[in-house]
Amino acid sequence: MPLPRPDPNRWLVLLAVMLAFLPVVLDMTILHVAVPTLTQALGASNTEVLWIIDIYPLLMAGLLVPMGTLADRVGTRRILLAGLAVFGLASALAAYAPSPALLIAARMLLAVGGAMITPCVLGVIRRTFEDPAERGLALGLWGTVGAAGAAVGPLIGGALLGHFWWGSVFLINLPVMLFVLPVCWLLLPRQEELSPGRWAIGQAVLLILGMIATVYAIKAGFGAKQPVAVVLPVLVLGVALLSVFARLQLLSAEPMLDLSLFARPAILAGIIMAIVASGALAGVELTLAQELQYVLDKTPLQAGVFMIPIMVAAGLGGPVAGWLSERFGLRPVACLSLAISAGALAGLAATDFHHPGLVVPVLLVLLGLALSIGLTASSIAIMGAADAREAGAAGSLEATGYELGSGLGITLFGVFMSVVFGRHLVLPEGVPEPLADQAARSIGDVYIAARQLDADQGAAVIAAGKAAFSATHSVLLTTAALLMGLLAVLVFFLLAQGRRAVAFQH
Q1: CB of 376 within 8 A of CB of 143?
Q2: Hey, CA dihedral for 151, 276, 241, 73, is it positive or negative?
Q3: Long-range pairs, 255-260, Cβ under 8 A, ≥24
Q4: CA-CA distance, 502 to 400, in Å (whole number)?
Q5: Which of 85-94, 170-179, 409-418, 463-472 is predicted with the least confidence, judged by mean pLDDT?
Q6: Where are the beta strands (DSSP E) in 345-427?
Q7: What is the pLDDT at residue 344?
Q8: How far apart are CA 299 and CA 304, in angstroms?
Q9: What's the Cα-to-Cα distance from 224 to each of 99, 366, 415, rounded to whole Å?
Q10: Which of 35, 259, 304, 332 is within CB 3.0–4.6 Å of 155 for a Cys-Cys bond?
Q11: Maximum CA pair distance of the chain?
């Protein structure tokens, strides 16, 4: 059966949705270099900082599937344009938030806007590009925006913080929105085939509340060290809500999330790759940003410049992944990119950042290139295994994997970082116990505690914090390297199983 005639404006449509996606992905990482400045300005605790950063990807992860199904029913164009407007408004509110609590609330509204935009982008690409080769190139270009946008976020954040206050990292979204909104309004097709049926808002609430409760339990138990009597009921509630949601999907004639897609090895492999790779990238970038500023005393702009090799390499990885996958096959490209990522992370873990030489930039290039190729390979695996009529569901699943991976990556890296840092921190004698307890939570808390001591004792506390964080970053990056190595092995077997399944069907 011949493919339908391609849309003559398909590349302009791709340009429009990539522009729409850019501010969403920028906001994933632009805060990373702003964490030290923001922590000091708002007096935010370590737990508040973690919530400020990852309430955005975590809430998005819960909202993506509901918003994807809503777009199928009321129109992708309508939801996408509304999402851009919400995102712009939330950016203004976040920029002028006077407290950590209000900043967290503004980030939640940003997540709503981002969740309206992201699944629409992937759905439009899948429906617009029927030819596999063109689709691979289109997804590669989209992957470039995702990977390069996430990588350039710290650089833009550092440049803004060098001249303006921390709120400027949000305010930068407004001129982007003023440009992107009319472009999308002009270029996106007005005629759409809508899906029948009702939008199950109750199922959406179950998914969102279940995910938030589960992640809160992880944070409260490990990061904030809340008692088991508080953590366990919240964890049980979260798991129960997610279990009820999953059961409803299996029993429903028109499920919000088609869980049968997970039975396809290529889609399962792609989603696991998206979760682990995006989680590792987000956690590593947050770790590096704090190491560069707190330990090496670099400015936010200098920290952003330091990460330019990741940014440049990530920008090249998307189109390269599409070409490599078409030429050599998805499985070797996906597995080799993950293996190279693991090697680069292991090398960074063993490197002294005080004397980077050429080794650190080369390792950062390898990491950015390999992770970008890996993330694009996950897109090709997922969208290539889905039919056009399943584009919205598959796009929502993939986007959920990215956002959930980023949110969990920051959560788990942040919690693990706090635990490892506290164990490595050796404070000088004479530090009052309340301040010692505060300093043991994070490197940011070390600086806040040091301000309350005399100059000599404060300097000694900061020196101890720097030594502890250098040891902590080595443990974190080594752990990330092990995860990526295990993922390479798992993806190798899953994609092999997928090839056998396709061969059996034919």
Answers
A1: yes
A2: positive
A3: 256/65, 256/66, 256/69, 256/200, 256/203, 256/204, 256/207, 257/65, 257/207, 257/393, 257/396, 257/397, 258/390, 258/393
A4: 26
A5: 409-418
A6: none
A7: 92
A8: 9
A9: 19, 35, 9
A10: 304
A11: 79
Sequence-distant (6+) residues with CB within 8 A of 83 are 67, 112, 113, 114, 115, 116, 117, 120
- For residue 267 the two structure tokens come to 């889609």
Work out the number of other CB atoms within 10 angstroms of the CB of residue 31.
26
Neighbouring CB atoms inside 10 A of 116's CB total 27
pTM of the model: 0.67
Question: Tens digit of pLDDT for each residue in 137-183?
Answer: 777 777 667 666 666 676 777 777 777 777 888 888 888 888 888 88
Give Cα separations from 50 to 56, 85, 410, 473, 478 (angstroms). Answer: 10, 26, 7, 17, 21
Amino acid at 226: Q
Q: Which of 261, 273, 264 is nearest to 489 (CA)?
A: 273
Quick one: which of 197, 173, 146 has its CA closest to 88? 173
pLDDT band at 386 (very low <50, low <70, confident <90, very high): low
At 45, which amino acid appears? S
Show the CA angle centred on residue 224, arms to residues 222 and 228, nearest 5°.
Answer: 65
Enter the tokens of residue 301: 């702009």
Q: What span, in angstroms and rounded, lies between the C-alpha atoms of 279 and 346? A: 16
Nearest-5° Cα angle at 160, 154 to 164: 145
pLDDT (tens digit per residue) in 247-293: 887 777 766 666 776 777 777 777 777 777 777 777 777 777 778 87
pLDDT of res. 501: 46
Q: Residue 353 is which amino acid?
A: F
Residue labelled with tokens 């798992």: 490
In whole angstroms, what separates CA 500 from the centre of its chain? Answer: 32
Q: Percentages helix, strand, coil for the chain, rounded to the nearest 5? A: 85, 0, 15
482 token code pair: 């092990």
Neighbours of 298 (CB within 10 A): 19
Burial of 443 (C-beta count, 10 Å sphere; 0-12/13-18/19+):
buried
Tokens of 235: 């964890």
Find all residues with CB under 8 Å of 48, minimum gap 6, and list them.
Answer: 42, 100, 101, 104
The token pair at 496 is 């092999």
Please state, in angstroms and rounded to a whole number, the distance separating the CA atoms of residues 429 and 348. 33
Three-class secondary structure of residue 99 per DSSP: coil
- R_g of the chain computed on alpha carbons: 22
Handedness of CA 465, 276, 250, 74 (dihedral sign): positive
In whole angstroms, give the CA distance from residue 343 to residue 500: 29
CA distance 382 to 322: 13
d(CA 118, CA 330): 24
